[in-house]
Amino acid sequence: MTEMTTTPDGDNEPQRTTRKPTRRGGGDPATRGRTTISDGVVEKIAGMAARDVFGVYALGSGLARTFGAVRDRVPGGSKSVTRGVKAEVGEVQAALDLEIVVEYGVSISDVARSVRENVVDAVERMAGLEVVEVNIAVSDVKLPDEAEEEPEPPRIQ
């Protein structure tokens, strides 16, 4: 940018000056504003991460899975990823409670450890929240000879 400036002896001489662009709002643009993550988002992330662990048969109690299976069969219904997952989310931290069903023959303590690790990693990586605890309740064991829990088909069609 070229501006005309007056020297002490009164002559107008072109001089080069550099102006920095005016920055509005101050600070790093990435830190302006606030991001809020709902409990449901964290529950979905945790539910998907828990289901990825070998030895986890399902999430939720038997009753919740039965109602979920009925809901899944309703046209337009979708599988609930959050079944068996409860999250409490603050501004920078999250706490999770999971209810799982493990497959018969696997070490429950190993499955629980793997679920914790996977859930903590996924939530911290995706949501940027510090996970302070992951409580796991094992509500059932899926036996090899048990039939799938499918509700009876509706009588009226």
List the helices and strands and how they pair.
Layout: E1 2-6, E2 12-16, H1 39-51, E3 56-59, H2 62-73, E4 85-89, E5 93-103, H3 108-127, E6 130-142
Parallel strand pairs: 5-6
Antiparallel strand pairs: 1-2, 3-5, 4-5
Task: Give a verbal description of the structure.
There is one protein chain. The chain contains three helices and six strands; from the N terminus they run ββαβαββαβ. With 157 residues, the protein is an alpha+beta fold. Strand 5, helix 3 (108-127) and strand 6 (130-142) form a beta-alpha-beta unit. It is rod-shaped. The termini are far apart.
Put the structure in a nutshell.
The protein is α+β, with helices and mostly antiparallel strands and 157 residues long. It has helices at 39-51, 62-73, 108-127; strands at 2-6, 12-16, 56-59, 85-89, 93-103, 130-142.
